[in-house]
Amino acid sequence: MSHLGYSFATQSTSKYALLGNLSNPTSVSSGCSEFMGNSVRNCSFSKEFGKKQRIGYSPLKVVCVDYPRPELDNTANFLEAAYLSSTFRNSPRPKKPLEVVIAGAGLAGLSTAKYLADAGHKPILLEARDVLGGKIAAWKDKDGDWYETGLHIFFGAYPNVQNLFGELGINDRLQWKEHSMIFAMPSKPGEFSRFDFEEVLPAPLNGIWAILRNNEMLTWPEKIKFAIGLLPAMVGGQSYVEAQDGLSVQEWMRKQGVPDRVTDEVFIAMSKALNFINPDELSMQCILIALNRFLQEKHGSKMAFLDGNPPERLCMPIVEHIESLGGEVRLNSRLQKIKLAQDGTVDSFLLTNGKEVRGDAYVSAAPVDILKLLLPDEWKEISYFKKLDKLVGVPVINVHIWSNILSVYADMSLTCKEYYDPNKSMLELVFAPAEEWIARSDTDIIEATMKELAKLFPDEIAADGSKAKILKYHVVKTPRSVYKTVPNCEPCRPLQRSPIEGFYLSGDFTKQKYLASMEGAVLSGKFCAQAIVQDYELLAARAQRELAGAGNV
Predict the structure, then answer these.
(1) Which reactions are catalysed by this chain (predicted)?
(2) What is the pLDDT of residue 406?
(3) Nearest to 108, CA basis, from 500, 539, 527, 550
(4) CA distance linking residue 171 with residue 163, whole number of Å
């Protein structure tokens, strides 16, 4: 590893999330890649006594509770997302619905299919694997325990995701948590520093007050320098944020006069939580988008966890909605080749089972690395597709450890109801960056993980296993996950409508303002569906020409 720090998220049986940042060449990070990830996201805290005490210090006892859903429905971003959803339901019903073939049933593909179905069209959604969700997929082991691709957090600042839950009637499946962020102190193992967002204050005052009250992570001069740097982002909005794409986090911080200590101890954790890479690689645009949303929206940084595994609790309701409107979802349908017609447009999607699937329009909702492998040679030199070369997925390793840790977590509530078990804890952690570890054995990864955990929780965990006992573990490796948000990659992100008539892209790597996140995936699906609906007359006429041509053969 090239960095000298790490952050990590832990998930107990009730999805308990902690993040820290220590000086060590091994890296463990939050697996959410969902905006800020370097904090305890979902727990109230009280003091736990009876352990070895230091003067003025006692360990934190975690008490996880659910909170009412925040008032999101009247915010400007929520209403904007709601309006976009309504345009599909209210669009004129097509004389002849388009059959749209979509490859990839992650959130982007599911979103594309859902909103096309809402507009009266027939999506045919193809998923290569036997599980839904893509980057939010999960599996059940022989003991009935679930293990996931990563730890996923649903923010108040995700207006399209929040609308999606409401449209499906599953708002009750999100378990909202206290509006606090608690950082592990890198130089003080076992101690934490918290940021509390006051409910009575509007944005951005609640965020500013939370920062001002905390004097452990940032000194006053550092706060002032960082605040001055953030002002243009708050005033200039999205245009200023996108203009910072050319700078890394480290470069931007130095430009503002913020000491490297702040980058090393605070923003290294945030960088890995957002994109699984270090501050010297991550584009500052990524950090600013997160901070801007959190500072501009009172409930933007409020966090919720899904009450169970994502394929069943989120993806299946979308599938049921699609099928209720006449669409299809087919598992075990892996795309092998994009077959072209004589004019260079798509003739069909050829699957690995030998079947060809034809439609009036085609969508790739696969990750960008898979898309690049599937691109026909005839398209590769087209500028639209050639720019994709700079977009490369980040390797990610997700680790699940079941143990007998109960002392700190004994009062856990049902933060994630389906995963709750009163007899054992489950920690979920993600290595970041993982490039040097992706080929290592599971044993090596678990051993390195326990060494890092022992430094953050010295009273509960020992690297030699003398304290917490590992009952079992799962390691999930994703060689290419979300695209690496390095400086100057923003111009390479494609619009959803490609230059090939009838071919579209969906995915968080495509152009939308939420970058590599669940919100970005859902919004990209809506934009893709919108482009197809707007092109209805063109696509319908194309289908008629093809039909007439087939009749003349």
Answers:
(1) 2 a plastoquinone + 15-cis-phytoene = 9,9',15-tri-cis-zeta-carotene + 2 a plastoquinol
(2) 44
(3) 527
(4) 9
Q: How does the average pLDDT of the chain come out, rounded?
A: 83
Radius of gyration of the chain (CA): 24
Name the 3-class secondary structure at 60.
Answer: strand
DSSP string computed for 376-434 = -GGGTTSHHHHGGGG--BPPEEEEEEEE---TTTTT---TTGGG--TT-EEEEEEESS-
Q: Could you please report the per-residue DSSP string of 304-318? A: EEESS-HIIIIIHHH
Instruction: Count Cβ atoms within 10 A of the Cβ of residue 345 and give its class: 0-12 exposed, 13-18 middle, 19 or more buried.
Output: middle
Query: What is the CATH architecture of 64-142+159-175+305-391+489-552?
Result: 3-Layer(bba) Sandwich (3.50)
Q: Return the number of other C-beta atoms located less than 10 Å from residue 420's C-beta.
A: 17
C-alpha triplet 287, 291, 296: angle, nearest 5°: 150
Question: Using the 8-state DSSP alphabet, how is residue 492 labeled?
Answer: G
Domain ranges of the chain: 64-142+159-175+305-391+489-552, 180-298, 392-483
Residue type, 271: S
Find, among 344, 350, 348, the residue nearest to 382 by Cα: 344
Contact status, residue 415 vs residue 16, Cβ threshold 8 Å: yes
Enter the DSSP assignment of 202.
Answer: P
Rounded to an integer, the average pLDDT of 435-443 is: 93
Please state whether the predicted TM-score (pTM) of the whole model is above 0.90.
Answer: no
Confidence of residue 552 (pLDDT cuts 50, 70, 90): low
HSE-CB for 233 with a 13 A CA cutoff: 25
- Collapsing DSSP to helix, strand or coil, 132 comes out as coil
User: What are the pLDDT digits (tens) for 56-85?
Assistant: 334 444 456 788 999 999 999 999 999 999
Burial class (CB in 10 A: 0-12, 13-18, 19+), 265: buried
Using an 8 Å Cβ cutoff, are 504 and 362 in contact? yes
Peptide bond into 433 cis (omega under 30): yes
Q: Give the separation between CA 4 and CA 18, rounded to whole angstroms.
A: 19
Cα angle, residue 260 at apex, residues 259 and 261 outer, rounded to 5°? 90
